[in-house]
Specification:
The chain has 186 residues and is mainly α. The chain has a single domain, classed as de novo design (two linked rop proteins) (Up-down Bundle). The chain is rod-shaped, with a radius of gyration of 23 Å.
Length: 186
């Protein structure tokens, strides 16, 4: 009888171990998938930006510094690998701030605001920004779940044994340009 009890306890412990380990694998893969979703939307944004900038350039030729900032921010963001984590998030937030300045410039040109190409690009970019925001929330939710499980007892024992590590949230740094309003001077 004691043997059956001990065997039952061993089976329960092994099942628990397998379930917790598989839970870590699932959460880690969900977080990676969520990051891939962010990358897809960022790629879409990168493809739209040159079209938007070229459309606005035709109307506001004397605002070249704003366009240069967008181009530099886009290049920097595209140049960072997905594994860059916080650096990638900061570069993306700088790009968002630069894009805000282009839209602020567009406000000063009524003909541009009525241009169908500009309106279509603006709508596409706005839709893409919303999708990026949604993908970030989804990613952060998955990272939160993984990090909670990594830190919680007794699953942290398995996490430490198999080197499951915390992942970084995709958030705004405190000093980021995306948190400040865009200032455009004419």
């Amino acid at each position: 009888m004691i043997t059956w009890i001990i065997l039952g306890i061993v089976v329960i412990v092994v099942l628990w171990f397998v379930l917790v380990y598989n839970g870590f694998v699932t959460l880690r893969n969900r977080a990676k998938e969520a990051w891939a979703d962010i990358e897809v939307q960022l790629k879409r944004r990168y493809d739209l930006i040159p079209n938007l900038v070229n459309t606005v350039k035709g109307y506001a030729t004397h605002e070249s510094s704003a366009f240069e900032n967008v181009t530099k921010a886009r290049s920097m963001a595209m140049g960072l690998p997905a594994q860059a984590g916080a650096q990638k998030a900061e570069a993306e937030n700088m790009l968002t701030g630069a894009l805000k300045s282009v839209f602020a410039i567009a406000e000063a040109y009524p003909d541009l605001k009525a241009n169908q190409n500009f309106l279509a690009l603006q709508n596409e970019l706005s839709d893409t920004e919303n999708k990026i925001q949604s993908a970030r929330r989804f990613y952060n939710g998955n990272v939160r779940d993984l990090n909670i499980k990594i830190e919680s007892f007794p699953s942290n024992i398995i996490a430490n044994s198999f080197k499951f590590t915390r992942m970084e949230f995709f958030d705004l740094p405190d000093n980021d340009v995306a948190q400040n309003p865009v200032e455009v001077k004419f």
